[in-house]
Design a protein that fits this description.
The structure holds 2 protein chains of 2 kinds. Chain A is of the alpha/beta class. Chain A is built from 11 helices and 12 strands. In chain A, helix 4 crosses helix 5 and helix 6 packs parallel to helix 7. By secondary structure, chain B is of the alpha/beta class. The chains are: A alpha/beta, B alpha/beta.
Chain lengths: 327, 315
C-alpha cells in the first residue's frame, strides 16, 4: 500500500514561563492509503498534539513545531501557505474532535455548519451545499428536517454524529479521529463506530484513530502505534502488537486492563507515573517505570528497532550484542 | 449480624427532581440489598440514576419516597443527630479527584478534617499520627503531608479521597466512579488498592461505574440500571455469562475487547435514551428494544426473581 501521510522526525514544544514542554519528540510515523492506524497512549502522551500538527494547527507563541516534516501525498504540510492550508483542512484532511459538545458552533444551525464546509471547498451553489448537508445528515442517521436546528437541541451521541457528518462531508483522504467516542456511553459508542466504519469503508478514507482504549483499537484498526512521552515506542500490525506486544509499556497497558474473559483477581498496574515533559529522563523515557530496566536504559535513548515490520524502541531488543549480553 | 442479613436494604426508593419542564424521575422505584463485606456494582449509562442512588444511600439527597434500612436504622427518616452518627459508618468516594477536594487545604487537612469534625482524636499528636497512618494505608508518601492538591496528579488525588473516606473507620463506602477520570495504568493501581482495603478492613462497597470491565473485575453482584429503574440484578459471573434483559445483553455486547479474533455478535441499539422528565408508563427501554411487545407500552415491568439472587424486569 502507498503511504498517504509520512511524518518524519517531528518534534513539538510548548513554552511556558521559560520552561520548555517537550510534547512530541523526534517522532516518525506513516499512514497507509486506505488503512486505519490506531494511536494509543495515556493522557499527556502527545496524541492530540500530533493530530494538530498534521493539520499544522499548533499555534505560536505557546506552541511550536521545532523540527521534522509532515508529507501529505508528497507535499510538506509544514511549508504550505495559508491558502494551501485552508484548502487542505476539512477537504483533504479532516478531524473529528474529542468533545462533540464544544466542537460545534452553538449559534449556527447544524445544517449551516456542514453546508459552509461544502460551499468553501467544492464548486457548488449555496443551495447545492445545503442539499449535500441534508444528505450527510441522513447518512449519519439524523433526519434531514432537523438540519435547521442548533447543537443544543441534540444529545451527545447525535452531536457526535453531526461532527462526523461535518468531517466526512467533503470525502477527505485522511480522517484524524481524536477520541471520537470517549465522551459517549457504550451503547451509543457502538452505534457511532458502526456508522464510522461503514462510511470509511465506502470512501476508502485513511484514518488515524486516536484513543486510549485498546479494545477499540482491536476492533477498528489495521495497525497500531503506542505512544509514550511524545514518541512512538511500538508500532506494528494489530496481529503483531496484540499477538505479542514487545515494549514493556505496551505490555503494561495490557496488564492494567481488567479482562472480561478471564478471572484475574489482581491487576498488574504500571508503577509510577509518566515523566514530566519538562524534564524527560536522559535515557529511555519509560525506564523509571520499567520492570525490565537494565543499566544502559538510564543513559542511552533506545533506537527504533525493526523486527520483521514490528518496530519497538527498547534496548531489550537491540541487535547490538554488547547491549544484549548485559541483560 | 449473620452473614445473610443484608447490610443495606432498599425498598421502592424514589427520587424525583422538579424542573421547569416537569418532574424528572431520576430514581424510580428501585429495590435491592447490599450484602455485608461484598461489593455491589451498579452500572448504567450517564443519566440513568446511578449517582443519585449512591447519594440517596448516604443521604446527600432526600428521598421522595421509599425506605433505606441500614443495620436496622431507617436512613430516610433519621434525624440530624442520627445522621451525623451514621456518617461515621458510611462514607463516599467521589468521581472527580480534581473537584472533590478543597484546593486550598493541605493533604493532611483534607484527610484529617473528618477526625476533627467527629472529635475522634484528643490531641494534635494523635491527630498527626492518625493522618500519617491513613496516608500510608492508601500509599501516599509521607513527604506529601503538607502538600497541596495541585501538586499532585489524579491518581494521588484519588488516594486522598480514599484516605479521607477511611478516616472514620467506616464499614460502608459508596464509590462513585472512583477510577473513571484516571488513565488505565493508574486505574489499575487504584482498583487494586480498593480491593486490598476491602480485604483488610472488611468493607462493603457500592461501586458505581459505567465501565463494565471494571465492574466485572471488582463486584460480587451487579445491578444494571436504565432510566432510573433496575432492569437486572445478579451475581457477577452469572450475569456476565447470560444477561437476561435485552438492554443488559446489548450493554455487555457493546464492550470492546482488547484481543484479536474475538468474534462476537453485536446488537446495535436504535435511537437513544428518551427523556426522564414525566416518562410515559410502560417499560423505559421499550422504544429501543428489538423484542418490544404491546404490553411493554402499557405498564411498568416488575422486577421478578428468576432464580435465587437473579432478578430481571422484563415481560
Amino acid at each position: 500500500m502507498d503511504k498517504i501521510l509520512e511524518i518524519q522526525n517531528l518534534s513539538v514544544n510548548y513554552f511556558s514561563d521559560k520552561k520548555i514542554i517537550r510534547a512530541v519528540n523526534d517522532l516518525s510515523l506513516d499512514l497507509k492509503a486506505g488503512g486505519v492506524l490506531g494511536l494509543v497512549g495515556e493522557t499527556g502522551a502527545g496524541k492530540t498534539t500530533l493530530a494538530l500538527s498534521i493539520l499544522n494547527m499548533i499555534r505560536g507563541p505557546q506552541g511550536k513545531i521545532i523540527a521534522g516534516t509532515i508529507k501529505f501525498s508528497g507535499k510538506n504540510i509544514l511549508r504550505m501557505s495559508k491558502q494551501e492550508l485552508r484548502n487542505m483542512r476539512g477537504k483533504d484532511v479532516a478531524m473529528i474532535f474529542q468533545d462533540p459538545m464544544t466542537a460545534l458552533n452553538p449559534v449556527i444551525s447544524i445544517g449551516e455548519q456542514i453546508a459552509e464546509t461544502v460551499f468553501k471547498h467544492e464548486r457548488v451553489s449555496r443551495a447545492e451545499a445545503w442539499k449535500k448537508a441534508e444528505t450527510m445528515l441522513d447518512t449519519v442517521g439524523i433526519p434531514s428536517d432537523r438540519a435547521k436546528e442548533f447543537p443544543h437541541q441534540f444529545s451527545g451521541g447525535m452531536k457526535q454524529r453531526v461532527v462526523i457528518a461535518l468531517a466526512l462531508a467533503c470525502n477527505p483522504t485522511i480522517l484524524l479521529a481524536d477520541e471520537p467516542t470517549t465522551a459517549l456511553d457504550v451503547t451509543i459508542q457502538a452505534q457511532v463506530l458502526d456508522l464510522m466504519r461503514n462510511l470509511i469503508r465506502n470512501n476508502g478514507t485513511s484514518v488515524l484513530f486516536i484513543t486510549h482504549s485498546l479494545g477499540l483499537v482491536a476492533e477498528n484498526c489495521d495497525e497500531v502505534a503506542t505512544m509514550y512521552a511524545g514518541e512512538i515506542v511500538e508500532f506494528g500490525t494489530i496481529e503483531q502488537v496484540f499477538g505479542k506486544p514487545l515494549h514493556p509499556y505496551t505490555k503494561g497497558l495490557f496488564g492494567s486492563l481488567p479482562d472480561l474473559s478471564e478471572n484475574l483477581k489482581r491487576l498488574t498496574p504500571i508503577p509510577g507515573l509518566m515523566p514530566d515533559p519538562m524534564s524527560l529522563p536522559d535515557g529511555c523515557y519509560f525506564s523509571p517505570r520499567c520492570p525490565c530496566k537494565i543499566d544502559i536504559c538510564d543513559t542511552k535513548h533506545p533506537e527504533n528497532i525493526n523486527i520483521e515490520g514490528h518496530y519497538v524502541k527498547c534496548h531489550l531488543y537491540s541487535s547490538d550484542i554488547s547491549i544484549r549480553n548485559r541483560i | 449480624m449473620s452473614k445473610d442479613t443484608p447490610l443495606m436494604h432498599v425498598t421502592s426508593l424514589k427520587k424525583y427532581f422538579h424542573t421547569s419542564h416537569g418532574s424528572l424521575h431520576a430514581v424510580d422505584d428501585i429495590s435491592f440489598d447490599i450484602k455485608k463485606g461484598k461489593t455491589l456494582g451498579m452500572v448504567g449509562e450517564s443519566g440513568c440514576g446511578k449517582s443519585t442512588t449512591g447519594r440517596l444511600l448516604v443521604r446527600l439527597h432526600e428521598a421522595t419516597s421509599g425506605s433505606i434500612i441500614y443495620d436496622g436504622i431507617e436512613i430516610t427518616k433519621a434525624d440530624k443527630h442520627e445522621i451525623t452518627k451514621l456518617r461515621t459508618r458510611m462514607q463516599m468516594i467521589f468521581q472527580d479527584p480534581y473537584s472533590s477536594i478543597n484546593p486550598r487545604h493541605t493533604v493532611a487537612h483534607i484527610i484529617g478534617e473528618p477526625l476533627k469534625i467527629h472529635k475522634k482524636v484528643n490531641n494534635s499528636q494523635e491527630y498527626e499520627e492518625r493522618v500519617r497512618n491513613l496516608m500510608s494505608t492508601v500509599g501516599l508518601a509521607d513527604r506529601l503531608y503538607d502538600a497541596y492538591p495541585h501538586e499532585l496528579d489524579g491518581g494521588r488525588r484519588q488516594r486522598i479521597g480514599i484516605a479521607r473516606a477511611l478516616a472514620l473507620d467506616p464499614e460502608f463506602i459508596v464509590c462513585d466512579e472512583p477510577v473513571s477520570a484516571l488513565d488505565v495504568s493508574i486505574q489499575a493501581q487504584i482498583l487494586n488498592l480498593l480491593m486490598d482495603l476491602q480485604d483488610k478492613l472488611s468493607l462493603t462497597y457500592l461501586f458505581i461505574t459505567h465501565d463494565l470491565s471494571v465492574v466485572k473485575h471488582i463486584s460480587d453482584d451487579i445491578v444494571i440500571m436504565y432510566m432510573g429503574q433496575i432492569v437486572e440484578i445478579g451475581p457477577t459471573e452469572v450475569l456476565f455469562k447470560k444477561p437476561l434483559h435485552p438492554y443488559g445483553r446489548a450493554l455487555l455486547l457493546a464492550i470492546p475487547i482488547p484481543k484479536l479474533n474475538v468474534k462476537k455478535e453485536r446488537i446495535i441499539l436504535k435511537s437513544e435514551v428518551t427523556s426522564p422528565i414525566n416518562p410515559k408508563p410502560g417499560c423505559r427501554f421499550a422504544p429501543r428494544c428489538q423484542y418490544v411487545k404491546p404490553e411493554c407500552l402499557i405498564s411498568d415491568p416488575i422486577l421478578r426473581e428468576m432464580s435465587p439472587g437473579r432478578f430481571v424486569a422484563c415481560f
